[in-house]
UniProtKB/TrEMBL annotation, chain A:
The keyword Cytoplasm appears for this protein: no
Signal peptide positions (record): none
Chief subcellular location: membrane
Single GO cellular component term: plasma membrane
InterPro entries: ABC_transp_permease
Molecular function GO labels: transmembrane transporter activity
Keywords carried by this UniProt record: Cell inner membrane, Cell membrane, Membrane, Transmembrane, Transmembrane helix, Transport
Transmembrane segments: 26-45, 57-76, 82-103, 115-135, 181-210, 241-259, 295-313
UniProt-recorded name of the protein: ABC transporter permease
Membrane topology: Multi-pass membrane protein
UniProtKB/TrEMBL annotation, chain B:
Protein name (record): Sugar ABC transporter ATP-binding protein
Main location, first listed in the record: membrane
Origin species: Pseudotabrizicola alkalilacus
Keyword Nucleotide-binding: yes
Keywords: ATP-binding, Cell membrane, Membrane, Nucleotide-binding, Repeat, Sugar transport, Translocase, Transport
Localization terms from the record: Cell membrane
Record's signal peptide: none
Length: 359, 520
């Protein structure tokens, strides 16, 4: 009873080729978009442009990776854009003011170096994610509502932190070791932007987590059938809390990176970023119904969206049209996704029917 | 007697063939008006099929149906309703969020000018119906606020509102309290007096004898007894139901049980609205023993099994595995202590349908393949393959989604998942539900093999043949309590009698709202 001959005989080569094309559709789309702009847009293929695009893509890709895990569990995280804004402000505050201990009556303040700033900011982002997770698991708030709430709260907190003003001039201070702060967003290592290296690390860790750890398997199981997973011994609440904390972590990284890139923190940063992140995940084949999605797909999805917007800008297409085109691409992606799952289910059924006939 | 009760509906030579099975094998059935026609038989005997034919849900493959002497052929439920046939299914098809009147007129709302729903007429007609049924139910009450018994009455009213001359009641008392049963019986008497022909399906034999005027017994798609109720007793029904021979899944070698491996002490599970779903229940299982937990729907068997698997945080009592108290409060901990559950509803509780067969079968035992957090995919695939081979699961590839498998193979995947956790006690809730005969036999053989290896098995079933043939010991539950305990080879009639002790003279447990329970 070996698998190979049965499956080979059960489906036609045409079907399997079509299925392969459908499975690789995001990649096909990426190649199409890339080739189109390479031919049509002047300077698109230059190295400088590649670096610029990859920096744009990276910001969305961080958020989309966190979002992918959340969506696989069957949830949604609307708060990531606000966490970006809040964490940018936190980073800005820490670089400029440190933590003032005046309230304790000592008259000192603690100043931080760049790494400490980044770590503290990331902790804030993970804390917001933890609140999302606790609201959803302990208090049974629907993910949409819970993260909509934290969307507003985090944005409000970001505005309150500066009274709505920008924290400017975040060059850092050599005395405190924070003069390297701008490096996070604009530095280069081995010819690649530092933030792109960060993305590579985060993406590899996320992909490893999804495919090679029990936690990753549990994330898929929770999204596929929560009750069934719980009865199989999966700690559903822990899994859910993890994905929201991880999403908060990813959003906080983006907040730090943007503040560092611009050397300024503005409280409105990150508005509607959550929608781009959802779009990238969905474009990459993540199912909103939960249980299905790949980190690799999401990254490619983020690249399709990023190249599409930058390419259209370079071709001088109006930004209004860009928005329309982006929307159409996302809808097309989901329609094709439906076709793929139907075909895939049919092929699997045919294979199993053939197997039970053979046995 | 026959003179008082004219025959309203007749089936002659009814044959119904489904792919692979003959559900009805030449059935002759007479339905008498103004009387209660009782229909009884084991699960899968063909009762539901016969009723679906009468209600227009299914077509006969061969044979004829006559209504008042005229041949009829209902092609849909709507046609049967138009001909005056109403059916109240065991599972209520009602909307808890709508009012009583809205429920009764759902899908055929009276309107003014074809647009505006005539609420006054709805309310008027509903009030009239409730008076006819002598029920003080306000038409504007949201249905979800009613007790389950009252909901059943609304369902009956819905059938009557469509001028039902023939009313089919499928296990109407399974969710009712004793007091609510009395109300139902009174309504049935009234309807009889009004000339309505009633078909009454139930597993509670004493109740059947009490309420019925005529009895028809089905076994494996054939009628094995049909007569007037006068003179019928339980042994006669049991004999007609299960016949002389029994399906054989018996033990081949002599039983050799080990020490006690599992014990439950004083388990309680409060029911919503008072009373207990599991009422101070204690039992113990020895290594190598197969214990069959038999009972009617709603007896609390599934709830008890769920208590063992930590699904009810409000349950009380203590469990012991190999003499040590089971203090773990979550599923993960209980699995680690050697308890494995094969749930009743495979699709909802047993499998993650969109995941691969391999991923499903290893889901409970992933830690086996993990070093700290790194998953050894090769070891996982090998073990999955070994279990698939051992359990003879017929598949093309372990990477296909589990949803592409047949029911029997899916069930084997669930069993494989449970076995991979190296359990000491296997809880199987209706392990043969929804799988074909061949797979059933394989599952039973497997249970025997596992017991011989020293597992303790507790299996819940509603199939009398199964529980008689497979169990080393039979425990019967009713109303959350143990009402009988029998050794293998016991008399079927005694087992059946234990399922409805004292014809259910239990205190009225009010507000047992099944709709809400399933929603929660």
């Amino acid at each position: 009873m070996t698998a190979a001959p049965v499956s080979a005989s059960a489906i036609s080569p045409g079907t399997s080729a079509l299925l392969f094309l459908l499975r690789a559709r995001t990649f096909v789309a990426l190649i199409l978009v890339f080739t189109y702009f390479a031919v049509m847009a002047p300077n698109f293929l230059s190295l400088a442009n590649a670096v610029i695009i990859s920096k744009h893509v990276a910001l969305n890709a961080f958020l989309a990776i966190g979002m992918t895990f959340v969506i696989i569990t069957g949830g949604i995280d609307l708060s990531v854009g606000s966490i970006v804004g809040l964490c940018g402000m936190v980073a800005g505050w820490l670089v400029i003011n440190g933590i003032d201990l005046g309230v304790l009556g000592i008259g000192y303040s603690i100043q931080f170096n760049s790494l400490e700033v980044a770590v503290l900011t990331v902790i804030v982002g993970m804390f917001v994610g933890l609140i999302n997770g606790l609201l959803i698991t302990r208090l049974n708030v629907a993910p949409f509502i819970a993260t909509l709430g934290t969307l507003y709260v985090a944005r409000g907190a970001a505005l309150l932190s500066s009274g709505g003003r920008t924290f400017p001039n975040l060059q850092g201070n050599a005395d405190y070791g924070s003069d390297s702060f701008p490096f996070i967003g604009s530095g280069t290592v081995f010819g690649l932007p530092f933030m792109v290296w960060m993305l590579i690390v985060v993406a590899l860790v996320a992909a490893y987590l999804a495919n090679r750890t029990p936690l990753g398997r549990h994330i898929y199981a929770v999204g596929g059938n929560e009750r069934g997973a719980a009865l199989s011994g999966v700690k559903v609440n822990q899994v859910k809390i993890f994905v929201y904390v991880f999403s908060g972590f990813c959003a906080a990284l983006v907040g730090v990176i943007i503040a560092s890139q611009l050397q300024a923190a503005h409280p409105a940063t990150g508005e509607t970023f959550e929608l781009n992140a959802i779009a990238a995940a969905v474009l990459g084949g993540t199912s909103m119904a939960g249980g299905r999605g790949r980190i690799g797909g999401t990254i490619v999805g983020a690249f399709v969206i990023g190249i599409l917007s930058d390419g259209l800008i370079m071709m001088g297409v109006s930004s209004f049209w860009q928005t329309v085109i982006k929307g159409l691409v996302i809808i097309a992606a989901v329609v094709i996704d439906q076709a793929q799952s139907k075909l895939q289910a049919r092929v699997a059924l045919q294979q199993e029917a053939a197997a039970s006939r053979a046995a | 007697m026959t003179g008082h009760h004219p025959i309203g509906l007749t089936i002659r030579g009814g044959v119904k063939v489904y792919p692979g099975t003959r559900a009805l094998k030449g059935v002759d059935f007479d339905l008498r008006m103004g009387a209660v026609n009782v229909l009884v038989g084991e699960n899968g005997a063909g009762k539901s099929t016969l009723m679906k034919v009468i209600a227009g849900v299914e077509d006969l493959t061969e044979g004829e149906v006559f209504l008042n002497g005229q041949p009829v052929n209902f092609r849909s439920k709507a046609e049967a309703v138009a001909a005056g046939i109403g059916i109240v299914f065991q599972e209520l098809n009602l909307f808890p969020n709508l009012t009583v009147a809205e429920n009764i007129f759902i899908g055929r709302e009276p309107t003014r000018a074809g647009i505006d729903i005539d609420r006054d007429q709805q309310r008027r007609e509903t009030t009239a119906l409730m008076q006819r049924l002598e029920q003080p139910i306000d038409p504007d009450t949201p249905l979800g606020h009613l007790r389950i018994g009252q909901q059943q009455i609304v369902e009956i009213a819905k059938a009557l509102a469509q001028d039902a001359k023939i009313l089919i009641l499928d296990e109407p008392t399974s969710a009712l309290s004793a007091a609510e049963c009395e109300v139902l019986f009174r309504i049935i008497d009234d309807l009889k007096a009004q000339g309505v022909g009633i078909v009454y399906i139930s597993h509670r034999l004493e109740e059947l004898i009490r309420v019925g005027d005529y009895i028809t017994v089905l076994r494996d798609g054939e009628i094995t007894g049909a007569r007037a109720m006068a003179g019928v007793d339980i042994p006669w029904i049991v004999q007609a139901m299960i016949g002389g021979s029994s399906k054989e899944f018996g033990r081949t070698e002599a039983a050799a049980f080990g020490d006690e491996i599992f014990r439950a002490e004083d388990i309680t599970l409060p029911r919503k609205g008072g009373g207990y779903a599991v009422d101070h229940l204690s039992l113990s299982i020895r290594a190598g023993e197969i214990v069959g937990l038999y009972g009617l729907m709603g007896a609390g068997r599934t709830e008890f099994v769920e208590c063992i698997m930590a699904q009810h945080p409000h349950s009380g009592g203590r469990f012991f595995v190999e003499g040590r108290a089971l203090t773990e409060t979550d599923v993960t901990g209980r699995i680690r202590r050697g308890i494995a559950l094969i749930p009743e509803d495979r699709k909802r509780d047993g499998l993650v349908q969109i995941m691969a067969i391999r991923e499903n079968i290893t889901l409970s035992a992933l830690q086996r393949f993990a070093r700290v957090f790194h998953l050894d995919l090769k070891a996982e695939a090998e073990t999955a393959q070994r279990f698939i081979k051992d359990l003879t699961i017929k598949i093309a590839s372990p990477e296909n989604p589990v949803s592409s498998l047949s029911g029997g193979n899916q069930q084997k995947v669930v069993i494989g998942k449970a076995l991979m956790t190296n359990p000491k006690i296997l809880l199987m809730d209706e392990p043969s539900r929804g799988i074909d005969i061949g797979a059933k036999a394989e599952v039973f053989r497997l249970m025997r093999k596992l017991a011989a290896q020293g597992l303790g098995i507790l299996f819940v079933t509603s199939d009398l043949d199964e529980v008689l043939a497979l169990s080393d010991r039979i425990i019967v539950m009713a109303n959350g309590r143990i009402t009988g305990e029998f050794a293998a080879g016991t008399d079927a009639a005694r087992v059946i009698a234990a399922t409805s002790p004292n014809t259910a003279q239990t205190p009225d447990t009010t507000a047992r709202n099944k709709t809400k329970e399933s929603a929660a």
